[in-house]
Design goal:
Elements (H helix, E strand, L loop, with lengths): L21 H14 L7 E3 L7 H6 L8 E3 L5 H6 L8 E4 L7 H16 L3 E6 L6 H7 L8 E5 L21 E6 L2 H14 L5 E3 L2 H6 L11 H30 L32
Parallel strand pairs: 1-2, 1-3, 3-4
Antiparallel strand pairs: 4-6, 5-6, 5-7
């Protein structure tokens, strides 16, 4: 396996380097084969580089794609310089920080409409309802060039250094840009080819009806950070309260009968027999 490199010819965010699980590639394999049955002739392009694992998986014996372009290059610079490698299909799991998702989907849809070049992009489910995505994907007739593939079980991602959440904080789905001319055909043939539990949907309405995307608007980064801080503060206060209660409950009660009383200083203005004062203080 390749070791993860920390050096990139572009700005990289540590939290963006989570690898696409092998199961995710398995799920789209029937769609890829429907587009091009011969994997020897099907060239794949993944523009976002992590540590090269994508190429190893897709060219491995299970998938068997002989032509996979996946290099440590600046994707956006290649677009600007018209140096994007030749390919049949783009398959990627783009970085989720900054505006990478928007830039990725913009490029993919432009290629699909101009050159009929399909794409498979793995992104959070909430992207399907985002305004920037809806503006690009919706056509005048209301139909979309994209179908949505929902996995049977949530995908889990691994960082090359073994860090990150045990479970992904969001659900991912495949955004499959195949063009409207292929949608109807694939919808008829895919049920027999897809694995158990996989679902294909063709619209935002279907995703909402199946509760496959969040119905509430996702808080912005500032709101999420504030909510996280409030939760941490509440947890800390609760733990402190439990510790204080535990300490009080475990403190031993002092038996006053065993503690000798401090000797009281004799006063010359007090009657030794009665203890009453013989002279007032004021």
């Amino acid at each position: 396996a390749s070791s993860w490199s920390h050096s990139y010819p572009y700005k990289a965010d540590y939290n963006d380097h989570f690898e696409t699980p092998q199961q995710a590639y398995r799920d789209i394999l029937p769609l890829l084969d429907a587009i091009q049955p011969s994997r020897d002739k099907h060239s794949i392009y993944d523009p976002y580089f992590c540590n090269g694992r994508t190429k190893e998986l897709l060219q491995g014996k299970y998938f068997g794609f002989s032509n996979v372009v996946h290099e440590c290059r600046d994707f956006y610079k290649d677009i600007a310089n018209n140096q994007v490698p030749a390919h049949d299909t783009l398959i990627t799991n783009p970085p989720y920080s900054d505006h990478h998702k928007e830039k990725c989907i913009e490029f993919c849809l432009e290629q699909l409409k101009a050159k009929n070049r399909p794409f498979f992009v793995l992104m959070p489910n909430y992207v399907a309802a985002r305004e920037y995505y809806r503006k690009q994907v919706e056509n005048e007739d209301g139909k979309e060039d994209v179908v949505y593939l929902l996995p049977s079980t949530p995908y889990e991602y691994d960082h090359p250094e073994g860090t990150g959440h045990t479970v992904s904080p969001f659900a991912s789905i495949w955004y499959c840009g195949i063009g409207r001319d292929r949608v109807d055909e694939l919808l008829h043939s895919m049920p027999q080819l897809m694995g158990d539990g996989l679902k294909l949907m063709t619209s935002l309405q279907q995703l909402r009806a199946a509760e496959a995307i969040p119905t509430k608007k996702r808080p912005n980064p500032r709101q999420r950070r504030k909510r996280k801080d409030n939760m941490q503060a509440t947890t800390t206060a609760t733990n402190d309260g439990k510790e204080a209660k535990t300490e009080n409950s475990t403190t031993s009660v002092v038996d006053t009968t065993t503690v000798p009383k401090a000797k009281r200083k004799k006063s010359r203005h007090r009657d030794p027999s009665t203890g009453n004062r013989t002279k007032k203080r004021f």
